[in-house]
Design a protein that fits this description.
single chain; 118 residues; mainly alpha; Multidrug-efflux Transporter Regulator, Chain: A, Domain 2; three-stranded antiparallel beta sheet; globular
């Protein structure tokens, strides 16, 4: 998982549903070609592909990319080691990601409810 110190160096993830590869590149400070390569190496990284093979990443993909970047660049893991580390923590991370997604959805629903009440 990312440490708080590493997280503060990266820009905050906006409250959008989908992100283009360029946006993810800026959010994670990783070049687009590296993101495409990581898709091949990390089976859990699966952005949605739409017309013209355009990639659209979701919030959990951005979080995963930040974890991969931390494992590779800051903690010194190899690609195989990082893949193994992510697979070993998948169940725990799935629960954490689910909780984050639920919090985000709840916040969005509360905003919609607030708008409807006005």
């Amino acid at each position: 998982m990312l440490e708080a110190s590493n997280n503060s160096e990266l820009p905050a993830i906006p409250g959008k549903r989908y992100f283009t590869i360029g946006e993810v590149s800026d959010l994670c400070v990783v070049k687009p070609h590296v993101l495409r390569y990581w898709e091949q190496e990390f089976p859990s990284l699966k952005p949605i592909k739409r017309r013209g093979n355009r990639r659209y990443y979701q919030r959990q993909d951005v979080i995963l990319i930040r974890q991969i970047k931390s494992l590779l660049y800051e903690q010194g893991f190899t690609i195989g080691g990082a893949r193994q580390r992510l697979t070993g923590h998948e169940a725990k991370d799935d629960s954490n990601q689910s909780q984050q997604i639920i919090k985000q959805l709840r916040s969005e629903l509360e905003q919609v409810l607030d708008l409807l009440r006005r």
